[in-house]
Amino acid sequence: MLFRVEEPPQPELSVVAAAIVAAMWLLPALVGSGLVLIGAPLYWRTRPAPLLVGWTLIAVAWYQYYSTMSVVLTDALRWVSALLGALLALAVFVLCVRTAERMTPQEPETKGLTEKERKYVESVLRRHLEVTDDP
Amino acid sequence: MTPELESVIAAFAGSAALTSLFVILALIGTLNPYHRPAIPMLGALTVILTSTYLFAQTAGIAADSGALRLTMSEGVLVLFELLPLAFLVFTLLFLQASFRKRPDDPLLALLESESGSE
Questions:
Q1: CA gap B45, A4 in Å, rounded
Q2: Which residue of chain B has the CA closest to A104?
Q3: Do B94 and A82 touch (CB under 8 A)?
């Protein structure tokens, strides 16, 4: 089943409610952003119609955001705190990857080609570069 | 503890736990024979469990699977709160892209002047 019919339990219910509220401004924001990217002169060619519709949708998204959301000082503190939390998680990940790489034993140096291998590689290169032996 | 401070700590723990969950999903998605995901996976799990413990201590609840679900939900909620900030940055970048003008190319100018003189 792709869609749940019954209501999810708490705390997932509050997440679903927040997603629905956010979708009111996120959907026009996403569609508008896509249209602006299509219409903007990124490769020196402007498409006015998608650009205009895109900016209208972006304006609608911002209007929708400010009419449904109210930002207070505590929110700014939460944002900073959330960014710090994400940074901490990423820093731990980077340190763990570094540790794992340091613990990996280094591969021994590869031995040189044998005479037979050398001749084979040479013939392949000659064929691809279309070099003839004749001067 | 004030509710504001509790909310700030919950945002910190939630976003750290959710980011680590994304890290674990990325590690699973990129598994290959040359990959050594054990240590990063353990690190991410440690962050998730520590964040859940911190959240449970702050909220005064038991550090069990319910606390883990609450921490993750808090992470998603705070992510929704951060989206407008990202959108603000993107709006400014889109403004810059929409009013972009082709820079004067000295070689093209030279070519045009030469073709004009002939």
A1: 29
A2: B36
A3: no
Residue B61 lies inside a defined structural domain of this protein = yes
> What are the structural domain ranges in chain A?
7-73
Res. A132: pLDDT tops 70 = no
Would you say residue A70 has pLDDT above 90? no
ipTM exceeding 0.90, yes/no: no
What pLDDT score was predicted for residue B115? 67
Mutate one of B79, B87, B101 to test the A interface: name it (highest A CB count within 10 A): B87
Q: Is the pLDDT of residue B61 over 90?
A: no
Q: If you search the block for the tokens 């219910």, which residue do you land on?
A: A13
Nearest-angstrom CA–CA distance, B6 and B12? 10
Range of the structural domain that residue B76 is part of: 3-83
What is residue A40's DSSP assignment? Answer: S
| Secondary structure (3-state) at B30 | coil
pLDDT score at A52:
92
Contact of B34 with B98, CB cutoff 8 Å: no
Cβ separation A81–B12 shorter than 8 A: yes
d(C-alpha B75, C-alpha B9), whole Å: 11
Enter the DSSP assignment of A132: -
Residue of A61, A75, A82 with shortest CB distance to B12: A82
- Residue B117: pLDDT over 70: no
Contact at CB, B7 and A84, closer than 8 angstroms: no
* Residue B65 resides in a domain: yes
Number of H helices, E strands in chain B: 4, 0
